[in-house]
Structure formats: C-alpha cells, structure tokens
Amino acid sequence: MGLNPGLTNSIVGSTSTTAETTGLLPEVFDYIGCNYAGTTADIYTYKSGGSGGITVATLTVNWTDSTKTVLSTIVRT
Predict the structure, then answer these.
(1) Which burial class, exposed, middle or buried, applies to 11 when counting CB atoms under 10 A from its CB (0-12, 13-18, 19+)?
(2) How far is the C-alpha of 66 from the C-alpha of 9, rounded, in Å?
(3) What does the alpha-carbon distance between residue 22 and residue 28 come to, in Å, rounded to a whole number?
(4) Quick one: which of 9, 40, 63, 67 has the most CB atoms within 10 Å?
(5) E-strand spans in the chain?
(6) How many C-beta atoms lie closer than 10 Å to residue 29's C-beta?
(7) Contact by Cβ (8 Å): 18, 7
(8) Are 55 and 61 in contact (CB under 8 A)?
(9) Cα torsion for 2, 33, 62, 70, to the nearest 10°?
(10) SS3 (DSSP) at 21
(11) Bridge partner residues of 60 (DSSP)
(12) Cβ distance 47 to 33 under 8 Å?
C-alpha cells in the first residue's frame, strides 16, 4: 500500500531518532504501530518513548471498500 500517514517532513542529515511533523500529527514521535483492523480500516498508533511509550496520536484510516483504493476518511484521536 505504501501509505505513511502523517509523515510530511523529511529530516536530511539528522541524527535524531524522532520525527516531528505538521498537519495531522504535530507531536514528536519515535514509534508507529500499524494495525490493519479489518477489511475497510487501518489504525496507526504514534508513540513517544518507543513501543511501550505514551500514545501521542492515533489515526484511523477508513476505506470505501476492501480493495483499499479509495480513501473515505481519516480520523485523528
């Protein structure tokens, strides 16, 4: 699928292990968990402090059908 929700900025030459973005995800994060929750939804959990860290944002990506070719909505919580 090649989808990277929220990754809008590139950091060239940076030694940082975190990413800072604009738009849907203004927080700093260093971990993205992916859960392909069902045939028409994908859930991306962004955390600070690694996989066991604090959740800073969650994106639920909803598709119109199971082909996942037409995006319906993206909800940030």
Answers:
(1) exposed
(2) 29
(3) 10
(4) 63
(5) 19-20, 28-29, 31-35, 41-48, 54-63, 71-76
(6) 21
(7) no
(8) no
(9) 0
(10) coil
(11) 43, 75
(12) yes
Q: Per-residue pLDDT tens for 6-53?
A: 444 333 444 555 555 567 876 689 999 999 988 999 999 999 999 999
How many CB atoms are located within 10 Å of the residue 34 CB?
A: 11
Q: Which residue has the tokens 């927080």?
A: 27
Model confidence at 57, in pLDDT bands (50, 70, 90)?
A: very high
Between CA 20 and CA 10 the distance in angstroms is: 9
Continuous segment of H or E residues that includes residue 15: none
Q: Which residues face 32 on adjacent strands?
A: 46
